[in-house]
Amino acid sequence: MQLCFATNNAHKLAEIKALLGKTFALKTLKEIGCEEELPETTDTIEGNSRQKAEYVWEHFGVDCFADDSGLEITALNGAPGVHSAYYGGSRDFQGNIARVLEELKSESDRSARFKTVITLVVQGKVYQFEGIITGQLLKEQRGSQGFGYDPIFVPDGYERTFAEMSIEEKGKISHRSRAFAQLVDFLQTYSGE
Ligand code: ITT
């Protein structure tokens, strides 16, 4: 089975490629001729995930899956959530982290969770899979791997941030890998019905 991973985020692509077995071959957006930004105009992670996958199916007729993810911070009532990519005003990861650290400056509750919703579209049918990991946010950054908010997020049960973990270590526990594992399970039993 050939599937396109509908993302323009090179870090997400690298993480999913590191998790891929021989279950299916993965095509990139570039390989199917999609050079544009994907639409993300709903107000939920589920909605944006679906919107990206359906856009690729409708415009390119290729079976695909999309990942929409976000950091949900308890003390900020779930923000930045669906706005995670632009929270600091642009796509800049450092600006995003700076805003979060500023808003949490006097907060003792540092709990947060990463959430990923993967939407699969096969032959026009839509399926969704969710992955969550809970953790704590540090007051300063640690580590240089990963992307986004990884340098301030320590998963519960661990002492290192995601940015201090290799791609394989993060891939054993992350929100993305949890959602992706469900997608793989689904595809292994998918009969096309
Ligand atoms: P695509 O829509 O092209 O897939 P994107 O970067 O726009 O890529 P999202 O809309 O899902 O992806 O934005 C999610 C943002 O949440 C992302 O830019 C990061 O800031 C953050 N994020 C998502 N997953 C993360 C992870 O595993 N570690 C750290 N931050 C993450």
From TrEMBL:
Q: What is this protein called?
A: dITP/XTP pyrophosphatase
Superkingdom per UniProt:
Bacteria
Entry cofactors: Mg(2+)
Residues in the active site? 68 (proton acceptor)
* Task of the protein: Pyrophosphatase that catalyzes the hydrolysis of nucleoside triphosphates to their monophosphate derivatives, with a high preference for the non-canonical purine nucleotides XTP (xanthosine triphosphate), dITP (deoxyinosine triphosphate) and ITP. Seems to function as a house-cleaning enzyme that removes non-canonical purine nucleotides from the nucleotide pool, thus preventing their incorporation into DNA/RNA and avoiding chromosomal lesions.
Which residues of the sequence carry a binding annotation for Mg(2+)?
A: 68
Hydrolase found in the keyword field: yes
Q: Which organism is it from?
A: Runella salmonicolor
Task: Name the UniProt key words of this record, in alphabetical order.
Answer: Hydrolase, Magnesium, Metal-binding, Nucleotide metabolism, Nucleotide-binding
Q: Relay the cofactor remark from the entry.
A: Binds 1 Mg(2+) ion per subunit.
Question: What general EC class does the enzyme of this chain belong to?
Answer: hydrolase
Q: Which residues are listed for substrate binding in this entry?
A: 7-12, 69, 147-150, 170, 175-176
Reactions catalysed, as given in the entry: dITP + H2O = dIMP + diphosphate + H(+); ITP + H2O = IMP + diphosphate + H(+); XTP + H2O = XMP + diphosphate + H(+)
HAMAP family reported for this sequence: Non_canon_purine_NTPase
**SUPFAM superfamilies xrefs:** ITPase-like
Its Enzyme Commission number?
A: 3.6.1.66
Quaternary data: Homodimer.
- The answer to whether keyword Metal-binding applies is yes
* Family stated for the protein in its record: Belongs to the HAM1 NTPase family.
